[in-house]
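note to self — DONT lose this again. spent like an hour looking for the file last time. sequence + predicted structure for the chain T wanted, 498 res
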Amino acid sequence: MTYALLISVFVIATCGLVYELIAGTLASYLLGDSVTQFSTIIGTYLFSMGMGSYLSRHIGKGLIGKFIQIELFVGILGGSSASVLFLVFSYLGTFKLILYFLVVLVGILVGLEIPLLLRILKARLQFKDLVSQVLTFDYLGALVASLLFPVFLAPKLGLVRTCFLFGLINALVAAWTAWLFREQLPQVKWIRAECGAVTLLLLLGFVYANQITALAEESLYSDEIVFAKSSPYQRIVLTRWKDDLRLFLNGHLQFSSRDEYRYHEALVHPGLQSIANPRTVLVLGGGDGLAVREILKHPSIEAVTLVDLDPEVTGLFRSNPILRQLNQDSLNSSKTKIINADAFVWLEQNPACYDFVVVDFPDPTNHSLGKLYTTAFYRLLHKHLAENGAAVIQSTSPLFARQSFWCIVRTLESVGLRATPYHTYVPSFGEWGFVIASKQTYIPPGSYLENLKFLTADTAAGLFHFPKDMHPVDVEINRLNNQVLVQYYESEWRQVTQ
């Protein structure tokens, strides 16, 4: 019985940390700024556990029955937390309030568990063995949860199903404890009925997790969802309305098939067309293959290396027939080499130089993405540019995120690159900005390929002129240790969406 209870310590520690990780992940998916979300949620959760530990002193008689009740409450609250938060975000305007309410409540309940188990076990173990063994199993459980969550649980099961699974485990711990102490529990039949009811509810949630997620996402996305999957890095959603396909990563629109050509032609051709006889191109991000499609229109190109973090994205755009048609099968071209890796790490390890580099990362919504817009990253970029080469960086909206845009420009200039900013209008996004970075002075091309839908020499000339409301503003340089760009971005886009 002693070892069975110690195993329960291991299990409930695993469950408790998983609920915390899910809350942090969901908040970072839906609210952005992962450092802030994880920091505040972890702090609130640990504080709440401390409150629970303190409150455990007021629990007197009937420790075993109280422990079983707490396990059932943790199971039902923690197990349903992801689905509740998804639905609240989709249909109500109180996401943060409900988020922290659940974090506090689950934290208090989890904080009650270990003190009660210590008191239940104290008659079976000496104090030194009791503390050391309970804490050992507690910390082991936390380790297992931290390893399982990013490697298996989030990418394979998804957040909603993972939540229900660990709620089920909490309910099974309650049922297991009720069986172990069946001779000592009053009203044991009623307790078994409670365990059975909670287990059934959580099992139904686990079985119908996909339907719950779909119900929440139907409100988030106005069009029909034709593909949805969670990878270790992000939530990938593809929607369709008539002939319009739209890709969303963590809820942020990446492109609309109706007007993406405007974005990708503006991204690629002003820089690439200015280079005499370009042969080698590096694309960082852009796992949809749409930038690669534009690059391969230039006959002199011999090799394109695409480095994108998420194999789920590149795999989708290499295999789906509709998406392959959209990117003109660019990811399956013999000229294209795909590498799934962190672009920052890959640049540090790879010594090659390129005639042209496309930096097509998502906007700097959090610090993990913000590092790809820092002086540290741009110094690496400088090293990989050929002497007469150029790079282009997607740089968010110079109209709606003016400080963010000019922060990217100034950061590029601070590492010795010549920055040439420009912008274009994309109906799905609004006014959008780019920056060409080069070691030599940028000279605009005198002509463009004839098979483009949007760009000509005449239209391209206007891209480099900024009206008064998009003129440069004073900004700080984005460094790895301050990530000021993430602060600019969050502040500016919050004002736009309010």
